[in-house]
Design a protein that fits this description.
- It is a single chain.
- This protein has about 325 residues and is mainly alpha-helical.
- The chain folds into two domains: about 190 residues, no CATH class; about 80 residues, Alpha-Beta Plaits (2-Layer Sandwich).
- About 55% of the residues lie in helices and about 10% in strands.
- The strands form three sheets. The protein has a three-stranded antiparallel sheet with strand order 3-4-5. A three-stranded antiparallel sheet has the order 7-6-8.
- Helix 9 packs across helix 10.
- The longest helix is centred in the first third of the chain and has 22 residues.
- It is globular and about 60 Å long.
- The two termini are about 40 Å apart.
- The N terminus is likely disordered.
Length: about 325
Amino acid sequence: MTHGSRQPETGAGGGPVRKFVMPNTLAGKLWVWRYIILRRVSQIALLLLFFGTAHWGWKVADRPLLAGNLSSSELLGVIPMADPFAVLQILVTQSILEPRVLIGALLILAVYAIVGGRSFCAWVCPVNMVTDLAGWLRTRLGISGAFYLSRNTRYTVLALALAVSVIAGVAAFEWISPVGVMHRELIYGIGLGWAAVLGVFLLDLFILKHGWCGHLCPLGAFYALVGARTAQLRIHFDEATCTHCGECARICPEPQVLNLKQAAQVGMVASGECTNCGRCTPMCPEHSLSFDWRVAITKHKRHSHAGTSKRRAA
């Protein structure tokens, strides 16, 4: 080895640490961007279904395709759906809701308890498109944060929303929610509610990185609690191939969920605050992160432990 030469950095497993390199081909780039593309398709398609039903009379078997909004809707005029957080705010005011609304809330709650509550944030919420744009611009412009705020603040906002609902006798967050405002105005017409959406954009761009979704949104806090222990769709973590290069944490909008020590113990990113956005999976040079079902991850982890025990015994 010549004087002054540097050895390549080695990772946790002894292998060289590689950084993510964007492919040169369009096909390669599209593969890297696949989850971003799929999320946009999901978010826009849902908006289009609501808009088409409201303005163009879309029907299936002479039934409205998707009527209502994200707070309360009906699929094919038969299946009720309701925002469980909005319903919870109404229930704490001691108001009485129709059984159909309660069924709709329980149905949505069950879905997100299975796929992961904050999947709503990445795959459904229209404000996610606004905050992602702000985050992209923030990175391109090199804007640094104006101040620090704990990500647990959103749980305080969640508690305040419920407390104010009790005191005021109305669903407090629903009156000011940028999520509901943006969705309703995209479907039914633009009004002054766009000021709230613009406020979220400016907050994320100039003041606090991932400010709204990552620090303040009580709806995100609510969904973080939903499915935290029951969610079946998880990010599988392969400890053996990971070199701790840090690419996943760099791209993750909720980097605190990437507790690799904990993930190594259970074989997956288990935090309820993970949005299942999939950004980390194509960024990993070693393919140590991938979507999988909890039962498969648990089975794989069990077999890995069994294999390690046998090797030690031998």
